[in-house]
Amino acid sequence: MEAAAKRFFSSPYFAVVGASQDKSKFGYRILAWYHVHSLPVIPINPGRPSIALPSKTYDTVPSVSSLPNPATTALSFLTPPAVTRKVLEEAKSAGVRAVWLQPGSFDYQDLKYALDNFESAVGGFESGTAGGEGWCVLVDGEESLRAAGKDIVRQRL
Fold it and tell me: Which residues form the CoA-binding domain (predicted)?
C-alpha cells in the first residue's frame, strides 16, 4: 500500500469525489488538505457549482468524466460505498489511473475492484498507515507526498 500511495501522489492533478461545503464533513477536510498542501485539486460534486474555502473558492465539476485531465488526475473518494462503485466504474472508463478510497467510502468489493482495475489503489488496513482507521490522506498524505518526491509547500486555508 505504501508503494500505491507513493504512485498516487506522483500524479500531477488531484480531485476529491464527494467534496463538500460542510466544514464538519471529510469531503471538506480532504479538499482543504490538498489546498493547504498547494496541490492542484478539483472538487467533484454534482449538486454545487463551487466550494469556498476561507482563502479560495473552487469551481466544482459534476462527475469524473467532466475533469479536464482524468488520465492524469488521482481521485480521493469520500462518497458512501453505494456511490463509490459507480464512480469507480466511471473513473475506469475515463482513464483514471490512481484512486484513494478514504475510510468509510468503500466495502470489500469496492476495494477489490479498485485494486484490480487501477494502476494505483490506496485503501483498507494494510501495513504502512500511520492511523488505526485505515489509509487516510489526512494521516498518511504527507509521508506519501515525501515518498513521491514532492516538496511540501503549505499555504493558508
Answer: 8-105
| Cell numbers describing residue 143 | 509521508
Q: How far apart are CA 94 and CA 105, in angstroms?
A: 20
Beta-strand runs (E) in 81-151: 98-101, 120-122
- At 77 the three-state DSSP class reads strand
Fold exhibited by the domain 1-148: Rossmann fold (3.40.50)
The model's pTM is 0.96
pLDDT tens by residue, 136-151: 999 999 999 999 999 9
The Cα 77–Cα 132 span in angstroms is 18
**Sign of the CA dihedral 40, 153, 142, 37?**
negative
Q: Measuring CA to CA, how many Å separate 46 from each of 52, 64, 89?
A: 15, 10, 17
